[in-house]
Amino acid sequence: KQEVTQIPAALSVPEGENLVLNCSFTDSAIYNLQWFRQDPGKGLTSLLLIQSSQREQTSGRLNASLDKSSGRSTLYIAASQPGDSATYLCAVRPQSNSGYALNFGKGTSLLVTP
Amino acid sequence: KAGVTQTPRYLIKTRGQQVTLSCSPISGHRSVSWYQQTPGQGLQFLFEYFSETQRNKGNFPGRFSGRQFSNSRSEMNVSTLELGDSALYLCASSAAGGFGELFFGEGSRLTVL
Fold this sequence. Notes:
The complex is a heterodimer. In chain A, 0% of the residues lie in helices and 58% in strands. Chain A is built from no helices and eleven strands. In chain A, the strands form two sheets. In chain A, strands 2, 4, 5, 9, 10 and 11 form a six-stranded mixed sheet that branches. In chain A, strands 1-3-8-7-6 form a five-stranded antiparallel sheet, with no helix packed on it. The radius of gyration of chain A is 14 Å and the shape is globular. The relative contact order of chain A is 0.34. By secondary structure, chain B is mainly β. In chain B, strands 2, 4, 5, 6, 9, 10 and 11 form a seven-stranded mixed sheet that branches. In chain B, strand 5 (42-50) and strand 6 (53-57) form a beta hairpin. Chains A and B meet through strand 4, strand 5, strand 9 and strand 10 of A and strand 4, strand 5 and strand 10 of B.
């Protein structure tokens, strides 16, 4: 069974810092990996989708990388802002028959202080 | 383009009752999936539908059921509610046969008393 782990569970940084969120998964047979952000009491907002054949994706100040062979992905946030405060979730879609379901990590709760 | 719409946003039920939640996917998306989110368990997959067919079901009791209509709208039903069913229920839709980027709604917050 695919296990997805996110480290750290919580992170507090001052505004302006560059930061890295980590995601690891146990089975490298994945179809794709997706990063989400979730604000308190809200749904999930898709940030980046990386296909298994890709190494990285970029959107604005966000850059996500994927190393499928080692079972790792990182989300890099440049020049963090208080508005980036949220929980960030990583999810993998396995290549197996259960590929219709995403396996989620527990998330990293990020607080960016002014 | 409208996003994924879930109704109702909040609801309170008592143990033993049943509840039906509704989800309208993004226009053109034929895959709809449902997830339960709780503080202890995180996000757990409930089921996925594509063109009115359930393709996959998570490890939940039979009290949890769902369906999809010909217009891709989906409903999920929970019967004989238990306290542990209190959670945020999230619906997501995707294109590309269901293997594309997943887009979520705002969720339905269910409280069981």
